[in-house]
Amino acid sequence: VNELHPNAELSPDLYDQLKDYVQFTQEDAARLRTLLPVVRPHFAAIADHFYERVLTFPDAMAVFTEGSAQVERLKKTMVRWLETGLSGPHDHAYFRSRSKIGQVHVLIGLPQHYMFTAMNVMRVDLQKRVLDLAHDSTMTLGEARSTMDAIDRLLDIELAIMLHTYREDSEKRMRDKERLATIGQLAASIGHDLRNPLGVIESSLFIIRRRIGEDDKLSRHLGRISDQVAVCNRIVTDLLEMARNRPPRLKLERLRALTEQAQSSLTVPPGVEIVLDIPAELEFPADAGLMSQALMNLMSNAVLAITSLGDGCGTVTVSGRRIHEAGTPERVEIAVSDTGPGFEPRILNRVFEPLFSTRAKGTGLGLALVKSVAERHGGLVRAANAPDGGAVVRLTMPASLPAPDPTPSAH
Ligand code: HEM
Question: What pTM did the predictor assign?
Fold first, then answer.
């Protein structure tokens, strides 16, 4: 389970401290409440301007995984944010809901620095509206000054809450890094220790299977045991691969054969069909062991995604093709797609992070291993949702072997 925020509840004490520090008082809250009806008509324009600015930055854009419809939806969210920000009450429930907003931004992988700049765009826009009120004498200059101070204090608190979430996330990443290092050390020894007993279980199952003959009920149970042994084996292999991180031994391999190899070690339930759309002669440089492991992880995820749905029926398609765009080296694209529910759009940018899993039983290693394998091969990997639903993971791999290293010079 994604445990991005083990201490999701930020301490309410922190909120009280923040309010004390910036000296956000009852008078400030009252000023914002008075301001609300006057600036409300401008909220839509403020939200438009806010996203107009965001959209000029490509890596800010990258967090919008659902395109322009999402931006339109967010504009409405922003209007609500302004409404509740000015109306309050600025109590502990308010603080909790604001912390949740911070968590969403961390979850979607928005770089922290955008929070500063974005909050400032908001600050300047709101202050401009207040100054206008002073200019047309709706407010005295003194009132405008105090109202701008109240806005400043509120937005400082909002920013502090957002940044606090980022800090929690980076602390978690550091803990994860340590955890991964420890997993690395443990994996090799545990992996080896488990391989043997799993092997014994497998060979005994094979013998028992032959003996029990026609007993359907027993066969079913044996089938379940052997499926679970396969799951254990996969976890052990992922762990060992992650721990070793060895450079791939590249050889021209046929994608179709690698995929079939991966498929053969996969348990596919009856409702799921696997379709291979791969030209028989399609070759690329690959480490057969690593690459078929990566393909198996992808196919296994795809199968799990389908079986998580109501009737558990659907199709996993593995396709492969050469792509050659002018001016770039030839690549081989491998896509594994399924008819499951698709990735939750807002976590698309993070699904390859180690220990980031949204599945209750996920180890958070499967997709991380896929990424590591693709990158060790000089390729890259992207996750997306197909237009008609379902997840697609695309690997783009070099199509030919790297040129041999030039002979080192005599110096
Ligand atoms: C002052 C700064 C910001 C505020 C007050 C703000 C406010 C919000 C709110 C209220 C939500 C909804 C949270 C929820 O689902 O519960 C949200 C989500 C989101 N925000 Fe922001 N935001 C800010 C900055 C940004 C920036 C700079 C970007 C992009 C570069 C951004 C992109 C997003 C995205 C992609 C989501 C997820 C939307 C979804 O669920 O579809 N936000 N934001």
Answer: 0.62
